[in-house]
Amino acid sequence: MDQFNTQLQITRGTGAGGANTNRNGLPYEQLTDLETEYDILSTNRNSKNISFRNFPKELIVTKQSNLFKCMLQAVDTSIIKAHGCKNPDECFINQEAKIIFILEKKFQQVGGSVCEKIQTPDFKVWQYSRSFPDYRIVYMYCLSDWFKDNCKAELEYLEYKNIPVFWGNDINYKTQISQFIVSYE
Predict the structure, then answer these.
(1) pLDDT at residue 22 tops 60
(2) Would you put residue 2 in left (φ > 0), alpha (ψ -120 to 50) or beta?
(3) What distance in Å separates the CA atoms of residue 84 and residue 9, rounded to the nearest whole number?
């Protein structure tokens, strides 16, 4: 059993989503938070200026609706915010290279419609690209191990579309994703 599942009781038949989404999803988001991998250089109202360890460039990190607040000057306000594109779980912004890394985290331990949620990166990249026209969008997933056995076609599609997938339960998760972000060109 992985490090996260030991913290949760599997409750098949009681519903994984709905009311349980925050109960299960929020601890997973906290477990996979990259805060331990960077130094905070300064804090702003809606974001933090950070530097990943061993990477001298300054990045901005923000979460949820704060993405649009901290990037107010870069948002095309004529674009209507789409469902699923309002509150990303974690974002890293490289202002110098004009890249926004959007990290969506999905935890699942029982069946449900969650597989459909990871089928949507094309739309989300398109929508975020319209909202932030001067930036490249790199959309990524952090998934729990459940997806490996239960969403094989979806994972094949994400690989085909070059959507990076990181496994939050992997002991090297934080190193792998931080290295991906800092070395992305």
Answers:
(1) no
(2) beta
(3) 28
Query: Could you identify the residue written with the tokens 């339960």?
Result: 169
Q: For residues 114 and 160, what is the distance between their CA atoms, to the nearest angstrom?
A: 20
Smallest CA-to-CA distance from 25 within 143, 182, 124, 183 is with 143
Q: pTM score, two decimals? A: 0.84
- pLDDT tens-place string over residues 79-118: 998 988 888 999 999 999 999 999 999 988 777 777 888 9
CA–CA separation, 162 vs 138, rounded Å?
Answer: 10
Domains of the chain (ranges plus CATH)?
Answer: 15-183 (3.40.1350)
Task: Specify whether the CB–CB gap between 25 and 107 falls below 8 A.
Answer: yes
- Going from the C-alpha of 151 to that of each of 71, 110, 136, the distances in angstroms are 34, 12, 27
- CB neighbourhood size of 114 (10 A): 22
Q: For the residues 48-61, what does the mean pLDDT come to? A: 91
What are the percentages of helix, strand and coil residues in the chain, rounded to 5?
A: 35, 20, 45
Q: Enter the DSSP assignment of 85.
A: S
Q: What's the CA gap between 180 and 12, in Å, rounded?
A: 35
Structure tokens at 7: 């913290």
